[in-house]
Amino acid sequence: MFYDHQQIEKKWQKYWEDNKTYKTSDSTDKPKFYVLDMFPYPSGAGLHVGHPLGYIASDIYARFKRHQGFNVLHPVGYDSFGLPAEQYAIQTGTHPAITTEQNITRYEEQLRKIGFSFDWSREVRTSDASYYKWTQWIFIQLFHSWYNKDSDKAESIETLIKHFEEKGTEGLNANQNEELNFTSEEWKNSSEIKKEEILLNYRLAFRAETTVNWCPALGTVLANDEIKDGKSERGGYPVFQKKMMQWSMRISAYSERLLQGLKTLDWPQPLKDAQEYWIGKSQGAQVRFATENGETIEIFTTRPDTIFGATFMVLAPENPLVQNLTTQEQKTEVDQYIEETSKKTERDRMADVKNVSGAFTGSYAINPFTCKNIPVYISDYVLMGYGTGAVMAVPAHDERDHRFAKKFNLEIIKVVESDVDVQEEAYDSKDSVCVNSDFLNGLNYKDAKSKIIAEIENKGIGHGTTNYRQRDAIFSRQRYWGEPVPIYYKDGMPYTLPNSALPLELPEVEKYLPTEDGDPPLGNAKTFAWDEANQKVVDTDLIDDKTVFPLELSTMPGWAGSSWYFLRYMDPNDDAVFAKKELTDYWGQVDLYIGGSEHATGHLLYSRFWNMFLKDRGYIEQNEPFQKLINQGMILGMSAFVYRIDGTNQYVSKNLIGEYKTQAIHVDVSLLKGTTDELDTEAFKSWRPDYADAEFILEDGKYITGREVEKMSKSKYNVVNPDDICNEYGADGLRLYEMFLGPLEQSKPWNTQGLSGVYGFLKKFWNLYFDGDNFSVSDEEPTKEEYKILHTLIKKVNFDIENFSFNTSVSSFMIAVNELQKLKCNKRNILQPLAVVISPYAPHICEEVWNLLGNNASIEFEPFPTLDESYLIEDEIDYPVSFNGKMKFKIKLAADLGKEEVEKIMMENEDVKRFLGDKSVKNFIFVPKKIINIVI
Ligand code: ANZ
């Protein structure tokens, strides 16, 4: 029977949609299972075959769990705010909402064609006002919260105000920007503005002057993970350091919990390592060094045990102390150096370890342990945002300090033995001991560290401390296409909008560029001011700073909406809460999350942070959002090249290049003939005007292109569109093939040629159910052999899916179907369960045969066939028979025979008699189902 995949797939996709087959109920007795994909940004280019890889894997898993009787939540949505639609708006004037809508329509069409079992009714879009209303609401909750280090969680700002009213700052243990000290009287006597200013110092969403990565070409601030090699990741524009007043999120308050939480997660180790490194916990001490002119320099060190070797100090050029420490003579040099530093990004500063540079301030500090005067320098290798922005330099034991000392001719004193390589960390070994100071002599690293910290505390010049590299996350973007921040300004202080005013909708603007005054694009909006008295958004012209106030003009970063979407899927249409507690309780954690490893230190940290915050404030129960996570590998493209002979419009076929001087040029893979490497030269000529009169040097009448594996990308012309594959081989073919390519986590090249293999398998599977053109399945009882094939497969697929080894399942399907075909098996008791086993991978064809088998309901909720191990038990064992341990021959014996019976049979066996000759048996060794060994 002809396997008409197009007709079958269309039919079932319509059936699923009409019958809402995958709509998930919230009230069932079934146990829950939450399978989530990292939702896509709907780009203009549409999907290529690399995108669905993870989605196919998660879909198989979701379907498998339904067969196992779980209530599965498997949603989809769009991360639909972002730069590309806005850049397009700047170039063309098309509203980003329009571009986004078009792109989503296209994505949805493509996704539906692949037959995913998404509950489409739960779709969310981060750019929908009904969604970002709740992103804004979470922002407001963060604004009205502070981090209490004693209770180790976020609390309402009200508890902080109460503390101030009762005790001022006394006994307060908070995560804050700056350490403040005031009494309850002082608090009570402060003006409203002063109080607001103080509270901003503690809020989890706060404003502070920060050095940011400013990208003038994009007109916005970028996060560190949005920058690659000093350029913006999108567009490759230069990025500069600039000080700006910015919204920030106090993620640093959660550093320790983010670190500890990792231990509870089933995530790939490299991903955990990346987060651990990013958070960057170091234990050491903060020490104050006095200077000659009365200033105090506070430093952070992880190696207080080396303090006897601190022969100079280095400050970050931005350190505010620099002004007071710089002497008149050194001022020009220092100012010039500061100016140079401002041009470098922090990344460049950290990366450039070879070229040390710096300037002397002219001042000296006093080493509190050696009591020697040590010079104070500034250098860009010390960063302002880390520790205290100052270091004690120990050139004998720190590589960067060593280079600096060499360049500026400074003293180098070795204070630790076996730490000679000036390698940080090289010195953790037990036998390293302190030298050169009576105080620490002979002590090892740990003891020296504790002793010196105790002494530092004793002297009252510092204390032991833990530092985290992770900084607070900058939250403002000077862009249009993002969530408006629900804040207005009164007397220069930020106030949140009331919840009743949410969503604060993105206003219309005429231009998507910054205003002439350098305000973000929202500054162009005509209606974007807050009327406090009437509690509504009004025309910007009405701002009088008495009752009508300006609204915040920056928008939220891309990561805001994606930091909580997994919660919205649990209750996507609720207008009263972001998600009802009973539903977040029921769905709990995401049980399986599949997505790319590029989100390691962005999305996956931010969403853990917001999740922990929502838990702290009692809105949800679970501490961690994503219990198990898998990073799918990349599907690589097979780029094709033509070879243009330099200075001509002549192209030489790959194997004839020889002496020609040529340039390899990417050609679109769709210009190749079928699945071969041969170029369709006519199609090539009409591809671009430049190639219209191209000439070719052919081999055997053909132009053979060069092929190379590269990242799949539109710019390399090697993308394969899943729509084309679905048309030709079916969605089932695409699904099976993507899994068949190799282990999920690995990167692997796409090779269209391999598709015919899985397509052949689907046809074979289909034909098991047909006799010629007639559907034909017999009710005859299957043989043991047939059952064995089925149950071997059930066992294998169960194991494979639970271990995310989808590729090996596909090979097992092929083996099973081949064997059944050989046996001409068409028995219902085999073919019916077989369809269920294969259906998570190839749902359309399985629905069709399931239906032909006379079942009316969808195959989706059919219990996964249970394994009957008895079919797998071997009836006969092919025993190797050894004499004195040497294998001589094999013999088939019934599997259930015991030692005595086997020995009896063996003693009468002609071969055994021959090998024995006249010798007698000293020992008869029998290991059931394994070996027979006769000792003579
Ligand atoms: C003395 C010392 C001796 C240091 C030694 C290291 C080795 P991690 O592990 O990353 O926390 N440091 C402190 N603040 C800095 C800043 N703002 N910019 C650049 N470097 C800074 O690194 C902590 C170490 O990095 C600190 O310990 C300090 O140098 C330096 F043999 O102090 B150390």
Automatic annotation (TrEMBL):
Pfam families referenced in this protein's UniProt entry, alphabetically: Anticodon_1 (PF08264), tRNA-synt_1 (PF00133), tRNA-synt_1_2 (PF13603), tRNA-synt_1g (PF09334)
Record has Aminoacyl-tRNA synthetase as a keyword: yes
Subcellular location: Cytoplasm
Domain Methionyl/Valyl/Leucyl/Isoleucyl-tRNA synthetase anticodon-binding: residue ranges: 790-899
Residue ranges annotated for the Leucyl-tRNA synthetase editing domain, each copy included: 278-456
Domain Methionyl/Leucyl tRNA synthetase: 38-143
Sequence similarity: Belongs to the class-I aminoacyl-tRNA synthetase family.
Protein name (record): Leucine--tRNA ligase
Organism in which the protein naturally occurs: Epilithonimonas zeae
